């Protein structure tokens, strides 16, 4: 059964990410695939990491697209075929200034609140790697199409000595099932496209050159489903999860900041960041 609050959610628009900084549009591009379908391209070299500014720009772009009533569907992709998104910008969590760290997490929550609760039909076109926060971005979509072979997707937070927040963990459990999620989360598994398909983390796997054309075909198809019923169904499926985070947003910020600022966590994050830079 859905809570009264979750039902109420269905009849009002959701709060968006806080406007801490003016969103920069240079990290994202928005275009139209058709009069009713928008395409949002992550374009922040080299790895489409989610910094505070990128997270705010992402939520602002989704809100802007949604504000146009003629748009019913959204395709999310990366300008790079190598990396969809390398997840959260780890330098935001290494030796952070506490107030910025808290704003950073609010902005990350905002990406989830904006896309997971979106009225739009959404497809993620995952041509390259999508670890951790990259996997989060794709999990928020309604349908995921990924390249087979090389790129990896999954929640590898434990490998960094951190943990996925409960709302990301919940979305992962909902998608791949309890046992698959436990196995993957505890080990920090990153899946190939084929492995991800086997556990239900993605919906289709194709050779690289076929991923984007197929993603376009799917989003154009989804755009033709009557928008009102689809949006209402989505709210019924996801409203309670969104509502839970809305009710406990600051408690989640406190959990994140305390965890990240701990000395042991800081050591692990710094070592991981250094290993990335030394590659
Ligand atoms: C309680 C806390 C809960 C917090 C939840 C956190 C979720 C997260 O998202 S944490 C971030 C997890 N992300 C990763 O572990 C991915 C790390 N990156 C990689 O494994 C690789 O970059 C890649 C497999 C995605 C791509 O490899 P490739 O060889 O093509 O590129 P690189 O040379 O490694 O990267 C290019 C460039 O980008 C920098 N970089 C990559 N990822 C991140 C990142 N997440 N944060 C900051 N910077 C990143 C990398 O250092 C390179 O920089 P330079 O060109 O300056 O060397």
Let me know the average pLDDT: 91
User: How much of the residues is beta strand, in percent?
Assistant: 5-15%
Please report the distance between the alpha carbons of the first and last residues.
49 Å
Order of helices and strands: HEEHEHEEHEEHHEHEHHHH
Total of DSSP H or I helical runs spanning 4+ residues: 11
Bound small molecules, which ones? Answer: ligand LG6FSS7D
* Number of β-strand runs: 9
Strand order of the largest sheet: 1-2-3-4-6-9
- CATH topology term: 2-enoyl-CoA Hydratase, Chain A, domain 1
Q: What is the CA-atom radius of gyration, in angstroms?
A: 18 Å
CATH architecture: Alpha-Beta Complex
The CATH class is Alpha Beta
Q: What percentage of residues falls in helices of 4 or more residues?
A: 40-55%
- CATH H-tier superfamily: 2-enoyl-CoA Hydratase, Chain A, domain 1
Shape: globular
Key words describing this protein structure:
single chain; 279 residues; 6-stranded mixed sheet; 11 helices; 51% helix; globular; binds ligand LG6FSS7D
């Amino acid at each position: 059964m859905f809570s009264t609050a979750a039902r109420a959610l269905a009849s009002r628009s959701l709060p968006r990410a806080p406007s801490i900084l003016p969103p920069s549009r240079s990290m994202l591009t928005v275009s139209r695939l058709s009069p009713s379908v928008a395409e949002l391209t992550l374009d922040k070299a080299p790895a489409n990491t989610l910094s505070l500014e990128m997270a705010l720009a992402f939520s602002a772009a989704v809100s802007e697209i949604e504000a146009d009533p003629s748009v019913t569907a959204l395709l999310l992709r990366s300008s790079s075929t190598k990396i969809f998104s390398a997840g959260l910008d780890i330098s935001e969590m290494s030796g952070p200034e506490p107030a910025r760290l808290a704003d950073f997490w609010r902005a990350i929550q905002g990406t989830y609140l904006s896309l997971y609760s979106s009225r739009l039909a959404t497809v993620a076109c995952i041509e390259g790697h999508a670890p951790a926060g990259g996997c989060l971005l794709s999990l928020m979509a309604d349908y995921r199409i990924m390249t087979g072979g090389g790129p990896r997707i999954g929640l590898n937070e434990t490998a960094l000595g951190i943990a996925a927040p409960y709302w990301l963990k919940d979305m992962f459990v909902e998608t791949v099932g309890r046992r698959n999620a436990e196995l993957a989360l505890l080990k920090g598994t990153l899946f190939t496209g084929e492995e991800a398909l086997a556990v239900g983390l993605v919906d289709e796997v194709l050779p690289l050159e076929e991923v984007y054309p197929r993603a376009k075909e799917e989003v154009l198809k989804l755009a033709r489903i009557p928008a009102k019923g689809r949006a209402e169904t989505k709210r019924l499926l996801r409203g309670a999860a969104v509502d839970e985070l809305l009710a406990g947003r600051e408690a989640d910020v406190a959990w994140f900041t305390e965890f990240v600022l701990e000395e042991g966590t800081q050591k692990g994050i710094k070592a991981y960041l250094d290993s990335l830079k030394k590659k």
